[in-house]
Write a structure and sequence with these properties.
Layout lengths: L6 H6 L5 H14 L3 H61 L14 E7 L4 E2 L13 H9 L4 E6 L5 E8 L11 E8 L1 H36 L1 H16 L12 H52 L23 H28 L10 E4 H15 L4 E6 L3 E4 L1 H18 L5 E7 L2 E5 L32 H11 L3 E6 L5 E6 L21
Parallel strand pairs: 7-9
Antiparallel strand pairs: 1-2, 1-5, 3-4, 4-5, 6-8, 9-10, 10-12, 11-12
């Protein structure tokens, strides 16, 4: 019970019943049982119960059939005996004699009794069996001269017998003379047969349960073998870091699970490879500006360091050596070079942080107009490159995305064009049907470099002497892929570089009835 709840809330709290508590207890206990044991037990219980129910149903069916057949045979014999009693009495009346006894056939180990409604017995020629007591139901059959009475009794000698009582046809001339025939038969043979049948059913049930246990163990081992392999593979990966895919067998659900696990391993290996390449490339790119900055800072420290001309402890120059002298122009150049290297490092670190997000943005996408983003990016780059001209033709293009990421990608395309454009050059910007094309009037891109323009840290031999990290266009490609688009590079008609960015979207802010999207442009 919640101690902070109000009295009304506590009164409305659900109190689990006995069944729910039992189910919760069983669930808690089963959660600590291994899956293999649960599957084995489930198969054993299911198959064992099925075999046991089948054996019980067969036993009950055969038992009822045997008892029904026994009762039917008793009724037939009793009816025959009753008819013979009626015939013998009719024959005795015709000859005017009194029957000393009834001559009835013997039906094996049966005992025949003829009695009237007053429970008076009549002699039978072969009456050698035990005395069979009559009940009120038997006397009612004789008195009413109709019906049939079945019962199973145990005699004084311990013998179990099955009895049936049938009426004798009434004599029209003696309506008060009503008799019945009771036929009793020992159930010893029937009980032996039923006992053997019960024993066989029990043995079959035990054998079925044993088979169910074997089947449960086999199913548990065979069915969970792929899970064991997957567990071993997971433990191996966690222990060694080896992302080698595991073997997939079959096409069932476990095979699909193994395939999904292999896909996860492949993605993890690709991510690790991406991290290794990113670290290696970043270290290579960082080495050059850091070395240059260290050299410049060492030189500045020698020029402006503290200490006398003969050197003091902690001074970077050797004792007795004169302090280096540089002109104001050289000093300004060194400081400017250090600042440029620091800016390059800052840009490189920012690009690395942006590029390290090797996944789609976590922020919820929002409706954006790519045309507005292009115009804002052009205004920003125009302030940084006032010596260039920008020829802009932009059409509205709406999509769902991250405005900051898209603006960064467009800005990188424009910065790349501005970097390669000559003074008083023109950067052409076109946005039509979601395809943004940015071309410059620079030297263009060599055919060998076209496939690698958007790769990380790739810089052509001509670009290695120019500022930049080699990550700007890689960020463009990542932004395009995260928004379901793509990028391409080619030569501009005027000889410069032509870079393209296509993003799926729609020309109107409200989606059309057919989805409002467009197909990517063909090359």
């Amino acid at each position: 019970m919640n101690p902070f709840a109000t009295a009304e809330q506590q009164g409305q709290e659900h109190h689990p019943g006995p069944y729910e508590r039992l189910r919760a207890k069983v669930t808690e206990l089963m959660s600590h049982v291994p899956l293999r044991t649960r599957i084995t037990a489930l198969v054993m219980i299911a198959v064992g119960v099925s075999v046991a129910l089948a054996s019980i149903a067969a036993l009950v069916t055969v038992r009822n059939q045997i008892l029904s057949q026994t009762d039917s045979t008793l009724v037939n014999h009793a009816t025959q005996a009753a008819q013979m009693v009626r015939n013998q009495e009719d024959l005795a009346e015709q000859v005017g004699q009194r029957l000393p006894y009834y001559d009835l056939p013997s039906y094996g180990d049966t005992t025949v009794v003829v009695f009237n409604a007053d429970d008076q017995s009549y002699r039978i020629n072969n009456s050698t069996g035990p005395k069979i007591p009559r009940t009120a139901a038997d006397l009612a059959v004789a008195a009413n001269n109709s019906g049939t009475s079945f019962r199973t009794i145990t005699l004084d000698n311990g013998i179990r017998v099955r009895t049936v009582t049938v009426p004798v046809a009434q004599n029209p001339e003696s309506p008060n003379d009503r008799k019945a025939v009771l036929l009793a038969q020992s159930t010893h043979d029937t009980q032996q047969t039923l006992g053997r049948l019960t024993l066989v059913s029990i043995l079959v049930g035990i054998a079925g349960i044993a088979v169910a246990g074997s089947a449960g163990i086999t199913v548990g081992r065979t069915g969970l073998r792929p899970v064991d392999r997957l567990t071993e593979a997971t433990e191996y990966v966690a222990r060694t870091g080896d992302l080698r895919p595991i073997e997939v067998q079959g096409t069932d659900e476990l095979a699909r699970l193994a395939t999904s696990f292999n896909a996860m391993l492949t993605a993890l290996a690709r991510s690790q490879d991406h991290q290794r390449r990113l670290i290696a490339d970043a270290g290579h790119e960082l080495r050059t500006p850091l070395t240059s900055m260290r050299t410049n800072i060492d030189l500045l420290a020698q020029v402006f360091g503290s200490g006398s001309e003969n050197g003091t402890p902690g001074s970077p120059q050797a004792p007795g050596s004169p302090r280096p002298q540089i002109s104001e122009a050289d000093r300004a150049e060194l400081i400017g070079d250090v600042r440029a290297q620091m800016e390059e490092l800052s840009l490189l670190v920012g690009d690395l942080v942006e590029l390290s997000r090797d996944a789609k943005p976590q922020a919820a996408p929002e409706p954006v107009n790519l045309g507005d983003i292009v115009r804002q990016a052009v205004d920003r780059v125009r302030r940084r490159a006032p010596y260039l001209k920008f020829d802009i033709q932009v059409e509205p293009w709406f999509l769902e995305g991250d405005p900051a990421t898209l603006e960064r990608a467009v800005t990188n395309l424009l910065d790349n064009a501005a970097k390669w454009s000559p003074e008083d050059g023109t950067v052409t910007v076109r946005l039509t049907d979601g395809l943004l094309q940015v071309s410059d009037e620079g030297p263009g891109i060599a055919d060998a470099d076209l496939p690698h323009v958007f790769e990380r840290f790739y810089r052509s031999p001509e670009a290695r002497t120019m500022p930049g990290s080699g990550l700007g266009l890689a960020i463009v490609r990542q932004a395009a892929e995260n928004h379901g688009g793509r990028v391409a590079a080619a030569r501009a008609p005027g000889g410069g570089a032509l870079l393209g960015l296509w993003l799926p979207g729609r020309p109107t802010e409200t989606p059309n009835s057919d989805g409002g999207g467009s197909a990517p442009p063909t090359a």
